[in-house]
Amino acid sequence: MSDSNGHADVLVIGAGASGSVVAWRLAQAGMNVVCLEQGGWLDKDDYPHRRNDWELQRQLEFNLDPNERMRPEDYPLNVDDTPINPLMFNAVGGSTIHWSGHFPRFKPSDFRVKTLDGVADDWPLDYWELEPYYDRNDALVGVTGLAGDPANPPRSVRSTPPLGLGPVGEACVRGFEKLGWHWWPADSALLSEPFDGRPACNNCGPCDLGCPTGAMSSAHVTYWPKAVDMGVRLVTHARVREVTVDSRGLASGALYFDENGDLQEQQASMVILACNGVGTPRLMLNSTSSLFPDGLANSSGLVGKNLMFHPNGFVTGIFDEDLQSFRGPIGALIHCQEFYETDPARGFVRGFQLQMCRATGPLSHALGGFTSDPVPWGARHHEVLRERFSRNFTIGAMIEDLPEPHNRVTLDPELCDSDGIPAPKIEYTLSDNSEKLVAFAVDRARELLEAAGAHTVLADPVVRRSGWHLMGTARMGDNPAESVVDKWGRTHDVPNLFVVDGSVFVTCAPINPTTTIQALALRTADWIADNHQEIPS
Ligand SMILES: Cc1cc2nc3c(=O)[nH]c(=O)nc-3n(C[C@H](O)[C@H](O)[C@H](O)COP(=O)(O)OP(=O)(O)OC[C@H]3O[C@@H](n4cnc5c(N)ncnc54)[C@H](O)[C@@H]3O)c2cc1C
User: Fold this and answer.
1) Is the whole model's pTM more than 0.85, yes or no?
2) For residue 406, is it left (φ>0), alpha (ψ between -120 and 50) or beta?
3) What number does the ligand 1 atom closest to the CA of 241 have?
4) 89 vs 17, 84, 188, CA distance in Å?
5) Distance CA 513, CA 106 (A)
6) Fewest C-beta in 10 Å: which of 110, 189, 257, 508?
7) What is the CB < 6 Å shell around ligand 1?
8) pLDDT averaged over every residue in the chain
């Protein structure tokens, strides 16, 4: 075992959306940063877009589900006790490799759920403390959209203008206008014009297979090139087994398996976890020692608990008109936050967002697209495929999940990854509140599609493959007995150990989390840059 990278000021574990931010910012502050990432860099030729079998790759190498994809860098997950599978990508860029780039911000009310509705907890910070970091992050990554939504606080002019509605957006707006529901072009982490040396989106469509042009603002094309230029040493194919601690209970680095499967040590003065809402609690629970027998920084017993997913219903409308719905980015077109806040008359608390999604190629249509209703095989196959292809789009009805301790990530007693590291087990049930919320949201999506003119509506109320947002498993708070990290992302138990991914979320709002994850990571990095002399090491 060797310490081949030398002692680092900062060790970041995980090179996804959040790890990229802190690595870049702390290198900018003059610190010596090493990042360990279990995946590798994807080259533009690695993406399937130009191959004849490109659509098949959705079932294979670019499957959203790591249990089905099983690339060497993926780890298995036990999903026997959850109706929703966690989805992720393991590479430089993390899950932003195959995300949709929908980039909405939390609203001020999202930080005050306990005060407003008497459920869950309030955050230890408010929207206005985070607002400058949202703006800074947007300007760094490149966001397409239109400032001025009266339903949200003001924000800076977006990096590039909206991509345009196209026939799908126009059909959708027809429905909104008929129903009188507020809608707005969604903030999207992708480019409609060249920006920062990257090209505009070419509307090719299948963003879930990754973006080979670099128009999608994924972490491997936004922060990482700058971080590496600034001197961050990014070690790929380095899978961390455990964070090490010294006799004083301070983090001292990590043990990891390199690409040859050899165990290596990286020493550091401070450790930052950025492995996502499943990978981070897994690593903390795997980091046991005589000082931390129940897992690192787990005196509250909350590491791994309060997992939130954003249960998601997909509702697809089929239209007579040709909507050209295979053209253009899959997500990130329009959002509707008409039903965002609690209305006691509905019989549940909190709310949801409706998010417009386009469709993609013929194979995904044949397999049902976003619904669990495939085109039938046999005599009617071509007829039904013609009826659907290019003539449908989907509304994602994404609800706010509330934190519940029994929804959790633990370590599976038997399942391990290819390096023999215990794998996570996911236990999750939908609460009564979530069941009611998602049913109401799916009904509203149906109503919208009918108002827009759909002749057929297909609904999938709780989509199994929809655990794309992983949050809550090392929650933030002022009270060490009720939270894992403080308002700066620093663990209560280990003063030189930080968490910057979605694990720190107290509640999750009914919207995509990554702009909030990155804004929080930037805020934590600023705090470390200003205070690192006082952090014990
Ligand atoms: C299909 C899909 C669509 C999505 N669409 C959107 C969207 O439209 N909008 C939005 O806001 N969000 C979206 N998301 C979610 C978004 O991708 C995540 O919120 C974001 O990437 C989380 O950032 P992160 O840094 O916490 O984790 P990740 O980006 O997942 O990065 C974690 C990294 O840590 C590495 N890692 C984990 N464990 C270890 C270990 N032991 N050793 C070394 N490395 C390790 C992983 O390999 C990975 O690269 C989507 C996600 C998916 C899967």
Assistant:
1) yes
2) alpha
3) 41
4) 11, 16, 19
5) 8
6) 257
7) 13-19, 36-39, 64, 87-88, 90-91, 94-96, 98-102, 208, 239-240, 274-276, 279, 283, 331, 468-469, 501-502, 512-514, 517
8) 96
